[in-house]
Amino acid sequence: WYGCAMLCYVTPKEHLGLPDRQDVKVGVITYKIAAHAADLAKGHPAAQARDDALSRARFEFRWRDQFNLSLDPDTAEDFHDQTLPAEGAKVAHFCSMCGPKFCSMKISQELRDVARNGMDEMSEKFREEGGEIYKKVDAAE
Predict the structure, then answer these.
(1) What is the pLDDT of residue 3?
(2) How far apart are CA 120 and CA 128, in angstroms?
(3) Most buried in the list 36, 65, 103, 139, measured by CB within 10 Å?
């Protein structure tokens, strides 16, 4: 592989002042993001599995799983709670950005449900009609 084989963590105050606790946290989280990006670029399966799990949790509105799978769970939950602080918002099937009427994830799920129901109906109709792809046509027709 070409490129970086080692990461070095720095704080926002590096060489400008003594870092405080928050500066160290920001530096560590930034390091974790860079390391995760490198793992993805190098094709590490665990890194992709984590991203896939986070994406599934997001699509399924499993907020607690999203927080816990993020690289900084406390900040992820704080960001969520700044807009939707109620405990019930952690089980809501929409996000604070789009709301319940315009959430693309919710709309996608609803469309999938409609399509799935339509396919189920058509499958049942197909089975009821004998399950034949090619039907015999009378010459009189």
Answers:
(1) 55
(2) 12
(3) 103
Q: What is the largest CA-CA distance in the chain?
A: 93
Residue 118 identity (one-letter amino acid): G
Record the pTM.
0.70
Is residue 94 within 8 A of residue 61, CB to CB? The reply is yes
3-state helix, strand, coil in the chain (%, to 5): 60, 0, 40
Domain layout of the chain by residue ranges: 93-130
Report yes or no: 93 and 106 within 8 Å, Cβ to Cβ.
yes
pLDDT of residue 24: 93
Mean pLDDT value across the chain = 89
Q: Which amino acid is at 29?
A: I
DSSP 2-66: -S-S------TTTTTS---HHHHHHHHHHHHHHHHHHHHHTT-HHHHHHHHHHHHHHHTT-HHHH
